């Protein structure tokens, strides 16, 4: 059974239909990369999965069970299974690093503070920020903030981690520290859906590549196929363009 | 010039002046908190309200920020009795100052509402926070931190400039007490030098406490002066 299955998913911003029937699947422990030109609907897919945008049609299934995003209970269930990291980190500026990471597990899941703090410290060490617990977001570099955002997402113990262009807002010299963190997660077997423009990175860590264009998936398969021998014209054109750069 | 300064006379009146200072503090704090509640509501209406409610909040702000507080208090004290409503000078000053503060605080708080980053709220939502938790943990702390310096400044403005208007209609706050005593002992210069000193001390105490609270609660690096 597929861990995550997205079936004929559609969504719109007002009159503008941006997802026109998206299909792809994700197996447990897989790192899938969602690629495609800007405006093709990649972020919208992640936003629909997280319940930030409403689907207008299609289905999302986790372990074979469909989520009904019109029901608050299902939206809550989606947010328990999945966590998202945004391009702009979106840390809570009024909270210390440690509190950013612990607030959701403590206040929402109701887990004991001591236990959550111990786990948060482990996560922060894992992303290389063991010494920054008491810093505030505005005292950190973009790369450090993004790693805190990853730790914050992991603290919820999601089954699937969604990453939306998490290195795009970073200065070039800070990109690698974040990519290293993601490499580590992939090696640990975390199930991830990554939107990224870092093609070299995608080729290296992705077990599967899903290519989107104009609200549709044009091709999906292992990276060797997508980058080496794309089957569709649209994929060939896009790959040709990005590999030339 | 053969005026002999007699500060001893003024210092002898310190207990009376301090009674006035307490009323000054009372007026300042009550008007500020009343104004803050009005401001919270006014800012919500101006930011999220529609149609007549939004218009009403706008008209309130324009009216009270474009007319002198003195005129507003005169209206309450001398105008309302013509309509059969008679309030004490303290009440009229308090209500006038509160309405006046409410208008300014509406604008200050609106800046806070506008500054809330929707992306932070979205992050809170995806972490599973309910609407109420988003407001409590993300929205309100953010607004509070953003507007704290402006709020603290405004409190000092009311405390020092606002409350003394009451003296004109006979409230025995600090300035009023000084006028009362001076008309009897004729030591106007000494009295008002001492009163100015007390105002400076009041301001200093208030600014210092506000700066410390800001630092502790919001990491605001507020200057005392
Ligand atoms: N808030 C929004 N309001 C209206 N249209 C939007 C909004 N966000 C994105 N879109 C549109 O939706 C389409 C898909 O956007 P997005 O999912 O962000 O693409 P991608 O992440 O692949 O660059 C684009 O045409 C974009 O202009
Ligand atoms: Mg995007």
- Please name the fourth-level CATH homologous superfamily of chain A: P-loop containing nucleotide triphosphate hydrolases
Q: Give the averaged pLDDT of chain B, no decimals.
A: 90
Oligomer: heterodimer
CATH class of chain B: Mainly Alpha
Return residue spans of chain B where pLDDT drops below 50 for at least 5 consecutive residues: none
Element order of chain A: H for helix, E for strand? EEEHEEHEHHHEHEHEEHH
Largest interface: A-B, 23 and 19 residues
Strand arrangement, largest sheet of chain A? 6-7-8-3-9-10
Sketch the topology of chain B as an H/E string, one letter per element: HHHHHHHHH
Specify Rg of chain B, calculated over alpha carbons. 21 Å
Q: What overall geometry of chain B do the principal axes of the alpha carbons give?
A: flat
Give the class of chain A from helix and strand content and strand pairing.
alpha/beta
Task: Summarize the helices and strands and which ones pair or pack.
The complex is a heterodimer of chains A (245) and B (225).
Chain A: E1 4-13, E2 16-26, E3 31-35, H1 42-49, E4 55-62, E5 65-66, H2 72-81, E6 82-85, H3 97-108, H4 113-126, H5 142-154, E7 160-164, H6 172-187, E8 191-195, H7 199-205, E9 208-213, E10 216-221, H8 223-228, H9 233-244
Parallel strand pairs in A: 3-8, 3-9, 6-7, 7-8
Antiparallel strand pairs in A: 1-2, 1-4, 4-5, 9-10
Chain B: H1 7-12, H2 14-48, H3 51-65, H4 69-79, H5 89-115, H6 118-126, H7 131-162, H8 174-185, H9 188-218
Helix pairs in contact in B: 2-3, 2-5, 2-7, 2-8, 2-9, 3-5, 4-5, 5-7, 6-7, 7-9, 8-9
Bound molecules: adenosine-5'-diphosphate and magnesium ion.
């Amino acid at each position: 059974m597929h861990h995550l299955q997205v079936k004929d998913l559609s969504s719109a911003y007002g009159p503008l239909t941006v997802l026109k029937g998206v299909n792809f699947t994700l197996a447990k422990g897989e790192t899938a990369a969602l690629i495609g030109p800007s405006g093709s609907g990649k972020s919208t897919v992640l936003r629909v999965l997280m319940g930030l945008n409403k689907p207008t049609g299609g289905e999302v299934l986790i372990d074979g069970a469909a989520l009904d995003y019109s029901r608050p209970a299902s939206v809550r269930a989606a947010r328990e299974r999945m966590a998202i990291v945004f391009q702009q980190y979106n840390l809570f500026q009024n909270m210390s690093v440690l509190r950013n990471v612990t607030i959701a597990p403590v206040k929402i899941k109701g887990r004991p503070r001591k236990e959550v703090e111990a786990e948060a410290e482990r996560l922060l060490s894992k992303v290389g920020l063991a010494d920054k617990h008491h810093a505030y977001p505005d005292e950190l570099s973009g790369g450090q903030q993004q790693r805190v955002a990853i730790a914050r997402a992991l603290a919820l113990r999601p089954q699937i981690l969604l990453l939306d262009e998490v290195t795009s807002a970073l200065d070039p010299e800070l990109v690698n520290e974040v990519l290293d963190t993601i490499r580590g997660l992939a090696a640990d077997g975390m199930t991830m859906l990554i939107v990224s423009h870092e093609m070299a990175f995608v080729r290296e860590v992705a077990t599967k590549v899903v290519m989107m264009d104009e609200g549709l998936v044009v091709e999906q398969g292992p990276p060797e196929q997508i980058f080496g021998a794309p089957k569709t014209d649209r994929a060939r054109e896009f790959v040709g363009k990005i590999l030339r750069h | 010039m053969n005026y002999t300064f007699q500060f001893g006379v003024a210092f002898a009146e310190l207990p009376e002046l301090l009674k006035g200072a307490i009323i000054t503090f009372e007026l300042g704090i009550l008007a500020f908190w009343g104004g803050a509640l009005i401001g919270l509501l006014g800012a919500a209406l101006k930011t999220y309200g529609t149609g007549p409610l939004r218009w009403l909040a706008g008209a309130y702000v324009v009216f009270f920020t474009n007319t002198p507080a003195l005129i507003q208090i005169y209206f309450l004290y001398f105008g309302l009795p013509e309509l059969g409503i008679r309030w004490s000078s303290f009440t009229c000053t308090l209500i006038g100052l509160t309405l006046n503060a409410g208008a300014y605080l509406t604008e200050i708080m609106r800046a806070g509402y506008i500054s809330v980053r929707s992306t932070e709220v979205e992050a809170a939502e995806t972490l599973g926070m309910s609407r109420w938790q988003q407001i409590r943990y993300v929205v309100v702390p953010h607004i509070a931190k953003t507007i704290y310096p402006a709020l603290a400044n405004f409190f000092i403005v009311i405390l020092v400039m606002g409350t003394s208007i009451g003296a004109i209609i006979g409230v025995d706050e600090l300035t009023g007490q000084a006028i009362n005593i001076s008309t009897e002992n004729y030591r106007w210069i000494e009295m008002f030098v001492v009163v100015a000193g007390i105002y400076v001390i009041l301001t200093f105490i208030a600014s210092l406490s506000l700066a410390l609270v800001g630092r502790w609660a919001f990491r605001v690096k507020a200057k005392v002066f």
